[in-house]
Amino acid sequence: MKGKFEKIKSVIPSGCDGILLTSEVNEYYATAFAYTDGYAFVTPDKTYLITDSRYIEAAQASEGTVKVELKSGVLKELFTSLNVKAVGFEDLCVTVAELARFKEQFPEVEFVPIGGAVDKLREFKDKDELDCIVKAQSIADKAFEHILGFISTDKTEKEVAIELEVFMRTHGAESAAFETIAVSGTASSMPHGVPRDVKVQKGFLTMDYGATFNGYRSDMTRTVVVGKADEDMKKLYNTVKLAQQAALDRAVPGADLGELDKTARDIIDKDYAGAFGHSLGHGVGLYIHEAPSVSSRSTAKLSKGHVITIEPGIYLFGKYGCRIEDMVLHYEDGCRDISASPKELIEI
């Protein structure tokens, strides 16, 4: 992976000499190197990776950037050597105190807010980014196949979550994409329930998890039944599956993302009005939740480079719940669902 120099330089504000990136995710986007202390400074000519001695040696392997060791006065030296008079900054993440400190340190430099200009670039992935997400999802799919043989009422919810994460880490993932969800029985009614140190209960078991590969994340959810599903459970599960498939069928180039949400919601509301409380999906990339939103409020169209989730659910408070989630990518030649794990009702 290489940093996205060409993309970022295209949003340098007119009259500015560069953009100073301070958010870790956009620093990674600029440099393809993960570090937690420092900055990235993107000019019309180069990207400068500025970090401290803990990272500087490892940073030498990152391509297409100038490495600068972070020490007292180094930014002032860099700005002076480049004759910097105006700098774009990430006002969506820089605190008031940080901005005041920058202005005190560089009274001769104008700091110009850029809003979400770089975040907007990240919304549209190129082939390298899409390939990383596909790889991350393939690891997650393998983890699902593995976990089916692990689940039992002798295991705890925490053990199921940990097993998913260990499997992904030992099969190519850098880390889990987010805190893994594995909730069973009555706890499955909580969309973002936290795995408990209790034995897996009979009934629905919902697992929401993903892998990270080269910084890019995947996101999937599968709900299985521990024991046997009764007719009410089968009806609920099949309603979620039908709603998801209807939205997936409409996830084509140019699709209205608000309409995708409505498609799934209308099916669920026929028999489970109000039981689908969250939006249908979201974008995925270096963050697990990023643009575009797939919700009733969304006005975006499914466009080249978008990666979205389609994840309807039904949650009956205090009883149980179910969610099924796939990822859809818009490539050059159209859209495809990259989640390969089965979606028929599985009883364990």
Furnish the topology, listing elements before pairings:
Elements: H1 5-9, E1 19-21, H2 24-31, E2 38-42, E3 47-51, H3 56-59, E4 66-69, H4 74-81, E5 86-89, H5 96-105, E6 110-113, H6 117-123, H7 127-147, H8 157-169, E7 175-176, E8 181-184, E9 203-209, E10 211-213, E11 216-217, E12 220-226, H9 231-250, H10 257-272, E13 281-283, E14 290-294, E15 307-310, E16 313-316, E17 320-323, E18 326-331, E19 334-337
Parallel strand pairs: 1-5, 3-4, 5-6
Antiparallel strand pairs: 1-2, 2-3, 7-10, 8-9, 9-12, 10-11, 13-14, 15-18, 16-17, 18-19
Helix pairs in contact: 7-8, 9-10
Tell me about this structure.
The structure is a single chain. The chain has 348 residues and is α+β, with helices and mostly antiparallel strands. Helices cover 32% and strands 23% of the residues. It has ten helices and 19 strands. The model has no long low-confidence stretch (mean pLDDT 96).
Oligomer: single chain
Number of domains: 2
Please state the average pLDDT score. Answer: 96
Q: Cα-atom Rg, whole angstroms?
A: 23 Å
Helix content: 25-40%
Task: Identify the CATH class of the largest domain.
Answer: Alpha Beta
CATH superfamily of the largest domain: Creatinase/methionine aminopeptidase superfamily
Sheet with the most strands? 6 strands, mixed
Strand/helix succession = HEHEEHEHEHEHHHEEEEEEHHEEEEEEE
The CATH architecture of the largest domain comes to Alpha-Beta Complex
Strand order in the sheet with the most strands: 4-3-2-1-5-6
Number of helices: 10
Write down the overall geometry.
Answer: elongated
In terms of structural class, how would the helical and strand content be classed?
Answer: alpha+beta
The end-to-end span amounts to 40 Å
Low-confidence stretches: none
What fraction of the residues are assigned to beta strands by DSSP?
15-25%
Total DSSP E strands: 19
